[in-house]
Amino acid sequence: MKIYEVIQTKEVLCGEFIENYHVIYEEIESRDYEDKHNCLIEKSSIVQKYITIFRGNSCSTLQKIKAYSIEKLDIAKIRKIIANDYPELFKDVQFTCRAV
Question: For the purposes of burial, counting CB atoms within 10 Å of the CB of 14, is it exposed (0-12), middle (13-18) or buried (19 or more)?
């Protein structure tokens, strides 16, 4: 049996994207359990970190555009990753040209 628990979540790069786009950072702990003699025994535990791009506004459900697995919360690297795939999402076109 697997259990997923969100440890931390927050919006990053606020105000840097065009309207209705958001980047969310999440840390998720994944635990794998085994049932032995009516007891749950933890086999493994992993913490995974992701950034996810969402589109949506206050009147709609957020739609997932793309998720990236990352090693740590490094804003400069996150900016560069997103600028490589979605430069049109940034408000500041000059930044996007420098990042790519």
Answer: exposed
Domain count, the chain: 1
pTM above 0.85, yes or no: no
How is residue 68 written in tokens?
A: 């990236």
Tell me the helix, strand and coil percentages in the chain, rounded to 5: 20, 55, 25
Nearest residue to 26 via CA among 8, 12, 13, 5: 8
User: What are 19-68's pLDDT values in tens digits?
Assistant: 889 999 999 999 999 988 888 888 999 999 999 999 987 787 889 999 99
Residue 88 lies in a domain: no
